[in-house]
Amino acid sequence: MERYRKTEIGLPVNGAPRKFGVVVFPGSNCDHDAYHVLKEIFRQDVRFLWHKETSLQGVDAVILPGGFSYGDYLRCGAIARFSPIMKEVIGFANAGGMVIGICNGFQILCEAGLLPGSLLRNARLSFACDYVRIRVENAGTAFTSASREGDVMKIPIAHGDGNYFADQETLDRLERNRQVVFRYCDAQGSVTEGANPNGSLRNIAGIVNEQGNVMGMMPHPERASDPTLGETDGAAVFISAIGHLIKTGQMKHATIS
Amino acid sequence: MFLAKINVTLRTSILDPQGKAVQHAIETLGMEGVREVRMGKYIEMKIDSGDRAEAERVAGEACRRLLANPVMENFDYTLEKI
């Protein structure tokens, strides 16, 4: 009996290109990866947005990429969240605009209060640089609509502070609202302690906000989208997002279905 | 001018693997009786103000808005005139 099903995605995505903005903070180092896959693999309109800029240039979606913004000084993302562009990103998100935070981007979204909780130091203290599996928990979000619930994605992580924490009340609320998008799992899709690379509570690897337009995830989908590199399970995130943007025009009020 | 001495500490509900690692290291030094170690941050901040109340306000705001993340940290500070 098939315990899980891999997402079968054809590349590239059809439809008029949408506009993506990849924010670059001092210390971001996954900005080019995100730019590359969006431009070359998914054929979208992408531009970089320097953290000091005060305009999002009319993009349909914002990516906060991975890296070590401000050297992770004080706390990961603690200083980046106050960059001038973040005022625009927060306004954009509050108005329903699509925002995807990857790794350091997820940390910044939590520090900025756009997502609940926080990312602590990995429980095992060592920097985790490895392929993991994550399970799609909610296929009804703008970032998983091309996936199916239970899909297992093979995807790389590279982080020292990926241990998701929130208090009991917040965690229960996330579960109740189906805001947990991805959980760390084993190759068969079982959510186990052994499959948890960093100690994240409830094996949480990615979440959305209540409105469903802002997502943060610790693993790197942009590093698992280019067939040349070998793994393409991460493509589902971008294909879902692009599909959602095409379907809804300029995304104004996304909701979790 | 005031010197704010600020402690940013993990909330008690947060697991502290760093603290645990340090505790084990102390044990391997042959020292006994060290029951628990929790790691925090110590920050010094000079505040240019002649008014203690104003300096309190500045220190508090810096802690609340940036230096401590309320999801997982507490803070306290002392102010001394310098």
Low-pLDDT regions of chain A = 1-8, 250-257
Assembly of the depicted chains: heterodimer
Cα-to-Cα separation, first versus last residue of chain A: 28 Å
> What can be said about the biggest beta sheet of chain B?
3 strands, antiparallel
Enumerate the strands of the largest sheet of chain B in spatial order, edge to edge or round the barrel.
Answer: 2-1-3
The backbone outline of chain A, from C-alpha atoms, is globular
Order of helices and strands of chain B: EHEHE
Written description of the protein model:
The complex is a heterodimer of chains A (257) and B (82). Helices cover 21% and strands 23% of the residues of chain A. Chain A has 257 residues and is of the alpha/beta class. In chain A, strands 2-1-3-4-11-10-9-6-7 form a nine-stranded mixed beta sheet, with helices on both faces. In chain A, strands 5-8 form a two-stranded antiparallel ribbon. Chain A is globular, with a radius of gyration of 16 Å. Helices cover 34% and strands 32% of the residues of chain B. Chain B has helices at 17-28, 52-67, and strands at 2-10, 40-47, 73-81. Chain B is built from two helices and three strands. Chain A binds chain B through residues 74-75, 78-79, 82, 110-111, 117-118, 120-125, 165-167, 199, and chain B through 13-15, 17-18, 21, 66-67, 69, 71-72.
Summarize the structure.
The complex is a heterodimer of chains A (257) and B (82). Chain A has 257 residues and is an alpha/beta fold.
Primary descriptors:
heterodimer, A: 257 residues, alpha/beta, nine-stranded mixed β-sheet, two-stranded antiparallel sheet, 5 helices, 11 strands, 21% helix, 23% strand, globular, disordered N terminus, B: 82 residues, alpha+beta, 2 helices, 3 strands, 34% helix, 32% strand, elongated
